[in-house]
Structure formats: C-alpha cells, structure tokens
Design brief:
The chain is built from 11 helices and 10 strands. The chain has 320 residues and is α/β, with parallel strands linked by helices. It folds into 2 domains: 28-122 and 246-315, Bordetella uptake gene, domain 1 (D-Maltodextrin-Binding Protein, domain 2, 3-Layer(aba) Sandwich), CATH 3.40.190; 123-238, Periplasmic binding protein-like II (D-Maltodextrin-Binding Protein, domain 2, 3-Layer(aba) Sandwich). Strands 1, 2, 3, 4, 5, 6, 7, 8, 9 and 10 form a 10-stranded mixed sheet that branches.
Length: 320
Amino acid sequence: MRKIFLALSLVSTCLVASAQAQNYPTQPIKLIVPFAAGGPSDVLARGFAPKLGDSLGQPIIIDNKPGAGANLAAEYVANAKPDGYTLFLMMVGTQAINETLYKKLNYNLIKDFAPVSLVASSSLLFVATPSAPFKTIPELITYAKANPNKVSFASSGSGTPLHLGGELFNTQAGTDILHVPYKGAAPALTDVLGGQIETALVGTPAALPYVRSGKLIPLGITSLKRSPNAPEIPAISEFLPKYEVELVYAIVAPANTPKAIIDKLNSQLTSVLNNPEIKRQINSKGFEVATSTPTQLGDYIKSEVAKWRPIVKKSGATAE
C-alpha cells in the first residue's frame, strides 16, 4: 500500500506540475537584473522584456538588485520559488568568476539554477587615451615590454571580467601592464578620457561613442572576431590568437523549475530575440543576439567556470 501511495503521489505531483506549465504564466514575471538601472544589463533587459511579456501574455517586470558583485541578485533568485515567476538575467562570466573569486557563496552556480537560454553577447574594447605613445596592440606590447611597469590599465574593479581580461592579456602577450581598479566602469572611463591613465578595458556599448568621436583610441576588441557593429576595429586575437573575452548574457530560473515551463520560456524567448526589429534594436546598442537550448547554456556555464578558475587564482584577486 505504501508503494501504491507513493506512486499515486508522484503521479499527482506530475499532473499538478503539468497543469501549472500549461497555464503558465498567470501573473507578472520578475526579471532580476544584477546591476543598476541604466547599465548594459539593464539596457539589454529593457530591449527584449516588453516583447517577451507580450508573447507570454503577462508583463515582465524589471527588478534591479545591484550589489556584492552580482551575488545579491544571484542569491535572491537561487532562493526564489521555482515556479517560473522569478528569472535572472545572468552575466555568465561574472558569475563564473565569482565561483572562484569569493571564498564563500550562499548559492552554487551549477546546482542552484535552471538554464533557459543565452540572450546576447557583448565584447570589451581595449582603449587608450589619444596622448598614449601607442595606437595599436603591437605598439602597446612593444612599448610595455620596453617600459616595464610604466603602463596601466583601468577596470571596473578587482576580480571583474574587465580586470581579468587585462590579466589574460598580460599572460598571453608577456607584458606586465599594471591594473588600477575603479569603483565601477564609469569612473574608469572618465579617467582614461581625461588622460589620467593610459588604457582601459571597457564595455563596447559604453566605449564606442567615444571611439567614434575621436576621444578614445581603439586598440582592439576582445571578441574572437571583429564585431559587425564596429568592423573597422581589429580583434585582439589577430595579434594574440587565443585571446577572447566576451560578456555573455543568459536567462536562468531557480533550480527545479518544471521542465515544461523552462521549455516554454526558451521557445518564446528564442522567438522574440530572433524578431528582426528586436534584434536590430539590441544590436544597435552594441550587443549581438545569441540563443541556445537549456542544455547548451548549462554546458557553457560549466565551461566558463573551468576557464576562469585558473585566471582568478593566478591574479591573486579575492573578495569576501
């Protein structure tokens, strides 16, 4: 009788989950963004969320939860009810770095989230102030080797993808360009614009307007290939073949969210992101639309954790 009871309970649970998925969604959905309003993640979210809400028949509410290097938002989503009404716009590289950067996290990136789909990617730009004595990546490498500890690069903070992108450059180029951490991308960009520091790694969407106005020199882009949004800027990989740093954005849900809900979200999100008008709008902001299956996203997240772990350790960066 006990086995029969357990079997009936399992069947009942599955039927309830199936019914919930078929009716989903019946209320607004919260999309948690781990950075402040107006930043790249927020701009991206607001670019597709209204259309996704229309597609699902319920509004998508953007909820900005900045703090603790995106861990505040990640922990919030990891502990949310797995019903499809709380989603997380994750910057995969940031969360993968945090797995090693932080001595203790109250969530596990692999175990506590259900992958939905990739959303978009954005490269970084290695830029220089116009007064710098180098205008290209080869010139930078030559100058930095001839003048050790004389060149610095700014980043949005220690342990961020922008910082570790610079450390990866040092490793592959054999240079020792000094890292100067700032409290955010905006002040770092301000100082390189003002000539207080020679170079910086900054998000392409933020840097392109200054490049095109001549206020910054574009040394190279960190994507493996040149960006369609700025084909005139060489990829750093043209000089350092293995160099690549991408800011990749993805949607995940709390672990144990029913598969039928994940599949529905994946289907609708993929359709929205491939809408020509939405794609054009997102691309115009400096992003490149990218979609995936949940399984592909899960595999990518695992590969990013493995990629960044040795780089974080070598950099010596830690966070509490």
